[in-house]
Sequence to fold (212 residues):
Amino acid sequence: METLATLEKIRNGAAKQFPGVNLEDENLAGCQLAKINFTGANLAGVDFSDSNLQGARLDGANLLGAELNQADMRANLVGANLMQADLSNADLRGANLRGANLMGAKLLQTSLAGAFLSGANLTGANLQGVDLRGADLRGANLNNANLKGANLLQADLKGSNLSQSNLEEADLRGADLAGVDLSDANLLCAELEGTNFAGVNLERTCMLGTTK
Fold:
């Protein structure tokens, strides 16, 4: 009964403060949740599809396997667990994802322009066609990530791990790749005009058809 009462308050906007709440596997699809406080909450498996979470506090929240497709996620997600979450077509422009765990997350056609992803774990994440223009990815782990056709124009990737990643046809113009590990990566037909390759590890990297 307590969970039902909490869900009713969340859905009708009667309250905004829910730090540490346990809502595992609940349905909050299509809800207006702007500026809600879910700090440290257990939101594993929650359906937030088409919901508005702009300005929400989700730092340290557990969003393992959550459904966030087409949601407005321009929120604070520092240190959040987004492993295996579905963020397809979500709006994460300018979102704060520093240190977040997005391992295996689905990010097809997600907008991450200007997002803060320094130190984030994106191992094996599907970022095909994602907009990462001007994003801060310093020190991020993108090992084995799929970035085919991604827009990384002027992104800051200094010191990140892109080993075994797929960057085929990605736009890396003006991006900063200083100190990046690109070993065994695929950059087939990637756009590289003005890209900073200082200290990059290009061991066994495929760069056929790239433009510089």
